[in-house]
Amino acid sequence: MQEQVSKKGIWKVIGASSLGTLIEWYDFFIFGSLSVVISTKFFPADNPTAAFLSTLATFAAGFVVRPFGALFFGRLGDLIGRKYTFMVTLMLMGGATFLIGLIPSYEQIGFFAPLIVLILRLLQGLALGGEYGGAATYVAEHAPHGERGYWTSWIQTTATFGLFISLVVILLTKLVLTETQFDQWGWRVPFLLSILMVYVSYLIRKNMDESPEFKKAKAEGKTSTNPLKESFGNKYNLKFVLLALFGAAMGQGVVWYTGQFYSMSFMKTVMMVHSDQADTILGIALLFGTPFFVVFGKLSDKVGRKWVMLIGMLLAVLTYRPIYQAMYKLSNPDLKEEVIASRSEETKQQQIDDDLLEVHTINRVFTDGTTLKEEHRRYLEKDGQAVIGEVKMLEKTTVHLSGGNYVALIALIFIQIIYITLVYGPIAAFLVEIFPVKIRYTSMSLPYHIGNGIFGGLLPAVSTYLATTAKTAADPNFYLAGLWYPIIISAVCFVIGALYINKNMVAKDLS
């Protein structure tokens, strides 16, 4: 009977912790999911490529400050408790997300638009830096002995499920609104909705109790008086912090962001897959892949954390290039046979202030069911003569996949999600177990958020830059250039983890 009560209690902990963490990840990922749209709202429109790269850099900035959030909130969590700390991070994250939805566009307030966005992204990063360590530690300290991998893996699902929810909200918003409405103001809706979800999570979290391990340590007077010094000033603990980072967290970070963010950016900006279709494909892969976080978390309780995580990294190193090569071929029109009889072209004009916008559209159909739409735009004066000067958007290509190609792309994304579940499912339990209770929040948060915030968070911007540079240099395999970053980081992490991580890496109280 006691076991049943215990399991019921842990499920309450999981539910309350996961809901709040899911919402924080939703808030964080809304920005990334809408990066293509945001680049046209908060940055100058005269250079779309530079605007998109600036948006990715702003997105990355939120990741870069996550280690600082880990230090600040981790210290609070070890000093005053887990519950209070991640209540504060929840409110900070929700408030910043809500305010992003209210910022005027670049055309309205100029340079202040990207500046305010950057500041709010930094606040989001600080909040997330404190949230994850608190939630993972809180759940682990409630978990029964020998089952930490299983129970903490439920927290791991929240990051992926938060991205999934963000995609669903965006797609539903687009479904309800017209394309023009979404472009003008509808993109703000997912940001503004977050405040309602945060409020619900706050009501649930405020009734939670502090973790039993922390309460016991506090009652016995064994909490830390200086978590930062004891975590990083002590050579023994610092060694574990560094090993956790370079032997596990940095490889996990790049695998995570390659499978979920670089793949989405790749579909939209390299494969030219329609935004809605790309979001749907990623959403389906996430839906089918998410349960495997729990599968591999539970497996790590039986066989150990080390090789479950390292196998995920090794598979990524060996197969990323073939996977992305296969993805690119699915949409590349140069490799397809066109149904010439199905080609159609039309030209339309519409009044835009004092000018006319001329849009020449070409629709092409291929034998495998792929359709391609090309839009060539130019602004004309009223007398029909072309305006001398820079044209805002010259050309836009959109690809729609169907049938076997559509299923194949879902499968290729799903494989990458499986790699994510291998590396991410066990890592919370792994990090919790190698640090003492008194400095656990601080010690585990820093390597996790450097691995994910720095190495992982920079991946979309760095990989996109590498691919863009290779394309400018006329490299025929430019679309694979961005993969060198996650491949090299994962390979280095695999070697360090394989050589130096061992089963004796367990928490020791050095007080």
TrEMBL record:
The principal location of this protein is: membrane
Keywords, sorted A to Z: Cell membrane, Membrane, Transmembrane, Transmembrane helix, Transport
Residue ranges crossing the lipid bilayer per the database entry: 12-38, 50-72, 84-103, 109-129, 150-173, 185-204, 236-257, 277-295, 307-324, 406-434, 446-466, 478-501
Location(s), subcellular:
Cell membrane
One Pfam family from the UniProt entry? Sugar_tr
What is the membrane topology listed in the Swiss-Prot or TrEMBL record? Answer: Multi-pass membrane protein
Record domain Major facilitator superfamily (MFS) profile: where: 13-509
Q: Which domain of life is it from?
A: Bacteria
UniProt xrefs under PROSITE patterns: MFS, SUGAR_TRANSPORT_2
Q: Which PANTHER family match?
A: MAJOR FACILITATOR SUPERFAMILY TRANSPORTER, SHIKIMATE TRANSPORTER
Q: Would you tell me the protein name for this molecule?
A: Major facilitator superfamily (MFS) profile domain-containing protein
Species, as recorded: Sphingobacterium kyonggiense
